[in-house]
Automatic annotation (TrEMBL):
Native source species: Streptomyces longisporus
The name this protein goes by in its record: SpoIIE family protein phosphatase
InterPro entries the record matches: Bact_Sigma-Reg, GAF, GAF-like_dom_sf, HATPase_C_sf, HATPase_dom, PAS, PAS-assoc_C, PAS-like_dom_sf
CDD domains in the cross-refs: HATPase_RsbW-like, PAS
Ranges where the PAC domain occurs: 259-311
Length: 836
């Protein structure tokens, strides 16, 4: 069709039709969240009312209104309570919300119910409303709207954690949801009412259960034989399925929402029968217990006879003999990974608010996502739970969660299972012992058999973890002591990257005294320390912590390496302990690429040069610490080119019963030569792969890259003469002019220099030194003197006072100021931000 024909065709169309099309396209373009929510709610409410439909409607509040929690409160029949009958989102306990509120009370739910009007509250209003919540740990916004869907007087409650709360569009969406929710009456069987044949109702406080006739038939129990106790039915189940079944029927493991579980019951003859339980927990009210209601059906015909029973039984048998947490983790991996055809599985313990990975399968880094490979055995295996909100939510809910392919998750989890991810919280008593992550690369369909296997395995593993913790409590105690005494993470360094590894011995349950440390020092210096205390017990670990603290304190005082190690030696000698320690201390100048090191009975450092060649420098060393009180510790020099790797280790990596220490050092140098220093963490892991594990192993690696921007430095010795301050000001003015500092900035710097130098001359004796350092636009002014006394900022100064204003002027002119000990005296410093 030509353009002329097209134009003629348009002219032949009625003008009203053309306008209607334009209006329709514009309306579609202007489609808002409210319109999308309205369409979704119409689709959801087209069928008959049910608890399932109510929950789906509530989920729209999470999608279209950005709510973190949404719930429906309904008046109880013949009572004075508004009861929570359905909810969606995170657990309500995070916000201190109750499962019921008195209608006559002063809560937001009761206020909205009585007035028939919405209630919108922010953090300020909630802070003064003790009835609205208990002890929520965070600020949030609360909305309560009358739910008029079926005229029964219920309320919709929604919570937003966003700083601005619910905006205008959110409120419109909540109003639509409140109209569509159709509040169900509390789903509780009336007393004396007959249950459906396949239904049950369990009182969570007493364990009394009402069951239909079909359920009794599935358990092969007659009505006359049944005593109404849930323990009677549980006693007829296969013992291996009991832990997972108990996780459903115990109130501590339940929250509002549906539950589904498959389990087996024993039969008078023949194999056990598979049953499927579907249930939901209903909250209790005043004087009434919480109830678990649901159905039980025969699932045998839906199952193949290649059952997961054998797998669960094998897992139970392996867990029965598992003595340590690691044994439990390996048993779970063996039972789940191949049957589920998973690509990777990780088990992590929950220690406080942190997850500590105990088993990764496959064990090689290349099988895991790049984020995990780069942080292998460092950050993620000891990560705070709050860093992964999805995992934290699953642990709070306490039930298995499954996310299919394409679900948006945080990077630390999404790449573990791009084809599907399952998270199994591992319950142990009344707490969570940890979590199991199972990931697939290809899109994976989760069938009911797999869900049942996951649920059963989680219950067994959680109980086994609790037993394992009790079994190796001593090992856990000393292991925790070791982790607390070592640095949690290493600092970021100017012009270098450092990584460290520590592996405890696998022989016995006691911990050793190996340690490492990285200490940032002034003027872009860094101290590297590695050491080993004699023995493998709690005393060695305690002494290790004392020596690490002492070396750090002496280093920060500004002493050279030989003085730092000498002070630590005298300290250990005076402690009158029978133990001694070895260490290697290296002071690296990041600006110059040079280093001085001292050995006290320890192995020398190993250098890998940029061309790949390695060197074990020969040097004299002193005796171990704590052996000779007046020992000498000679210093040796090192030269570091950009790209050089410096390796420090303890003898557990290079010495064993089969190989002497010289052969071990040659092997370490050879392996370091063939490594890629671009990924220093992978280099450390490769070196540890050959550890014999008959002794503790500590390893510290530093790659020197050189500083891209080096600071400008000048210093001036202040002589005690009448014009000392004037001479210092002239030196400072010449230096700043040579550095290109503007005249506007110079006046403030001169004032700070005058005040600091004057304070040092008036209040101290001995030598005074001024140091000026400029890096980018930050100028550091430091004045060192021989007095250890710290300057004190006055709290108030009267009009008649003739002094005391110096420190106040320094504080007013500086971005920051402070004081540090320096070789028996102190150094008072101030940092100023220059305009150019």
């Amino acid at each position: 069709m030509t353009s002329t024909e097209c134009s003629q065709g348009l002219r032949r169309r009625p003008i009203r039709a053309v306008i209607a099309d334009v209006v329709s396209e514009g309306a579609e373009a202007r489609r808002t969240r409210t319109l999308r929510a309205e369409g979704a709610l119409k689709a959801l409410t087209s069928g008959p009312a049910s608890p399932e439909r109510v929950r789906r409607v509530l989920e729209q509040a999470l999608v279209f209104a950005g709510a973190a929690f949404a719930g429906v409160y309904t008046p109880e029949e013949g009572g004075d309570l508004l009861c929570l009958v359905e909810s969606a989102g995170v657990p309500r306990t995070l916000f201190g919300l109750r499962d019921s509120y008195p209608r006559s009370g002063s809560s937001p739910v009761a206020d909205s119910h009585r007035s028939g009007s919405p209630v919108w509250l922010g953090p300020e209003e909630l802070a003064g409303d003790a009835e609205a919540r208990r002890t929520p740990p965070r600020d949030f916004h609360l909305a309560v709207l009358p739910a008029r869907g079926n005229g029964d007087g219920g309320c919709l409650l929604a919570v937003s954690e966003r700083p601005d709360g619910f905006d205008t569009e959110d409120r419109k969406c909540l109003e639509l949801i409140a109209d569509a929710v159709g509040c169900p009456a509390p789903a509780r069987a009336a007393e004396g009412a007959e249950l459906p044949a396949n239904a049950f109702s369990l009182a969570m406080d007493s364990g009394r259960v009402e069951v239909g006739d079909d359920i009794l038939g599935l358990f092969a129990v007659t009505r006359a034989e049944f005593d109404g106790r849930v323990e009677t039915l549980l006693g007829l189940t296969v013992p291996e399925d009991l832990p997972s079944l108990m996780s459903v029927v115990e109130a501590d493991h339940m929250s509002l929402g549906d539950r589904e579980l498959e389990f087996r019951v024993l039969q008078p003859s023949g194999p056990p029968k598979w049953l499927r339980l579907r249930g939901r927990l209903l909250p209790g009210g005043e004087g009434r217990p919480a109830m678990l209601v649901g159905t039980v059906a025969d699932a045998s015909k839906l199952r193949s006879e290649v059952t997961d029973v054998a797998r669960v039984q094998r897992l139970a048998a392996m867990l029965a003999t598992a003595g340590t947490v690691r044994d439990v983790s390996q048993a779970v991996v063996s039972a789940l990974r191949k049957p589920l055809q998973a690509d990777r599985i990780a088990l992590a313990e929950l220690e406080g608010d942190r997850l500590v990975v105990t088993v990764l399968d496959p064990p090689d880094p290349e099988s895991w996502p790049e984020l995990w490979r780069l942080e292998w055995r460092t950050e993620w295996p000891d990560a705070p739970v709050r860093a992964m909100p999805t995992l934290a939510a699953a642990l709070r809910e306490g039930r298995a969660r499954i996310w299919p392919a394409g679900t948006p998750l945080e990077p630390a989890l999404a790449d573990v299972g791009p084809g599907g991810l399952a998270v199994l919280p591992l319950p142990a008593g009344n707490r969570m012992a940890g979590a199991c992550l199972i990931g697939w690369d290809a899109p994976h369909d989760f069938g009911p058999d797999e869900r049942a296997l996951l649920t059963a395995s989680a219950g067994l593993a959680g109980q086994a973890l609790m037993r394992a913790h009790a079994f190796d409590a001593e090992h856990e105690l000393v292991g925790m002591l070791q982790r607390q005494l070592l640095p949690r993470r290493l600092p970021k360094l100017p012009g270098a990257v450092a990584v460290a590894r520590y592996l405890p011995t696998t022989a016995g349950l006691e911990v050793g005294g190996d340690w490492y440390d990285v200490i940032p020092l002034p003027d872009n210096h860094v101290a590297l320390v590695i050491g080993d205390v004699q023995g493998h017990n709690a005393s060695a670990a305690t002494l290790m912590g004392q020596m690490r603290t002492a070396l750090r304190a002496y280093a920060v005082e500004g002493h050279p390496p030989d003085v730092v190690v000498s002070h630590a030696n005298r300290l250990l000698t005076d402690m009158e302990t029978d133990l001694f320690a070895t260490c290697c201390y290296v002071d690296v100048d990041m600006e110059e690429g040079s280093a001085w090191y001292v050995r006290a009975g320890h192995l020398p450092p190993v250098l890998r040069h940029p061309d790949g060649s390695t060197e074990v420098p020969e040097s004299d060393g002193g005796p171990p610490l704590g052996v000779v009180a007046q020992a000498d510790f000679p210093m040796s020099a090192l030269r570091l080119q950009p790209g050089t790797v410096l390796a420090l280790t303890t003898d557990g990596l290079v010495e064993s019963a089969e190989a002497d220490i010289d052969d071990g050092m040659e092997r370490l140098a050879r392996e370091l030569s063939g490594s890629d220093p671009g990924h220093l963490g992978l280099v450390a892991d490769a070196l540890l792969g050959n550890a014999r594990r008959s002794d503790d192993v500590a390893l510290l690696l530093l790659r020197y890259d050189g500083m891209a921007l080096r600071p400008l430095r000048e210093n001036w010795t202040v002589w005690r003469v009448p014009e000392a301050v004037g001479h210092t000001r002239r030196f400072t003015r010449r230096t700043l002019r040579a550095w290109g500092v503007s005249r506007d900035d110079m006046d403030g710097v001169l004032l700070v220099v005058s005040e600091l130098v004057t304070n040092a001359l008036v209040h101290t004796d001995g030598q005074v030194r001024l140091d000026l350092t400029l890096l980018d636009n930050r100028l550091r002014v430091s004045v060192a003197d021989a007095s250890p006394r710290t300057p004190v900022k006055p709290t108030s100064i009267g009009w008649e006072a003739t002094g005391g204003r110096g420190i106040l002027l320094v504080e007013a002119m500086s971005e920051a100021w402070g004081t540090v000990p320096a070789s028996g005296g102190k150094q008072v410093w101030a940092e100023l931000v220059l305009s150019s």
